[in-house]
Amino acid sequence: MIPSSPEGILKLLISGGEPQARQLYGIIYDDFKDCECYGHSNRCSYIDYLNIVTCVSCKHNTRGQNCQHCRLGYFRNNSAELDDEGVCIG
């Protein structure tokens, strides 16, 4: 169900006066401590209806819930660790 008010559409969760997360249609954006993106993203989201934390905006040609896969057209560099910027090559 889509919220009918602007406050319902974009809800700012406040704790101690500091914004911690934004919620939009059941997705909460935050810096989760249990989010592992292997250094390819510094932002994660919690998808409430799936009950998962996923990386947002993976960099270095990576994709996936933990930025652990290569984008289409890129391939895994087997000589690089998963947290290496050159893990996916074109």
UniProtKB/TrEMBL annotation:
CDD domains annotated for this entry? EGF_Lam
Keywords associated with the record = Disulfide bond, Glycoprotein, Laminin EGF-like domain, Repeat, Signal
- The transmembrane residues are none
Q: Where is the Laminin EGF-like domain?
A: 55-88
Alphabetized Pfam families for the sequence: EGF_LMN_ATRN
Does the record's keyword annotation contain Transmembrane helix?
A: no
Name the Gene Ontology biological process terms.
animal organ morphogenesis; axonogenesis; tissue development
Annotated signal sequence range: none
Enumerate the PANTHER family for this protein: NETRIN-G2 (PTHR10574:SF27), NETRIN/LAMININ-RELATED (PTHR10574)
Q: What is this protein called?
A: Laminin EGF-like domain-containing protein
Organism encoding this protein: Hucho hucho
